[in-house]
Amino acid sequence: MKKGLRDLQKVCAIALAVVMLASPLLTPMAMAQKTTQDTAEQGSIDGKRDGKESTMPVAWMAIGCFTGGVSWIYPEFWETSVPKTPLLGKSPEYATTYEDAYRKARKKTIQTNSCIGGGIFYGSYAACCLLSAAASTPSSY
Question: What domain range is 92 assigned to?
Fold first, then answer.
């Protein structure tokens, strides 16, 4: 019985030694793969945040008021320039996802605020016209 227990202890000790020796070799490979994924995901998150922050929503609402919300077409034909400073020293995956997310967020913010501004302006204009038309019609009481 003692011999079987000693054999089990030897097998466990060898298995533990193999795991301890192999773990430093396997960990960097797993971390490198995770870092690449995290970098691409972080690039997307940072790009969305910076794209929204670099757009002046009040200005685009005002532009939407003056153009009647037609300014939502503007980002379709205009290529947004992405700032290069946040991309210094980053991986190519990070840079690619950052640029895509930045452009999409900026375009969406411009289009949304432009349409909201145009809708508010022309909606209030139409309401004023309807109210003035209703007030100017003679009532037959």
Answer: 56-135
Torsion of CA 119, 121, 123, 127, to 10 degrees: 180
SS (H, E, C) 90-119: CCHHHHHHHHHHHHHHHHHHHHHHHHHHHH
In a domain, 89, yes or no: yes
**Cα dist. 36→19, 39, 46, 97, 119 in Å?**
25, 5, 15, 12, 43
Using CB atoms within 10 Å of the CB of residue 74, give its burial: 0 to 12 exposed, 13 to 18 middle, 19+ buried: middle
Name the pTM for this structure.
0.59
User: 């205009």: which residue's tokens?
Assistant: 78
81 falls within a domain:
yes
Residues 8-45 have pLDDT tens digits of: 778 777 877 777 676 666 666 555 555 555 588 888 99
How many structural domains are present in the chain?
A: 1
Inside any domain, residue 114: yes
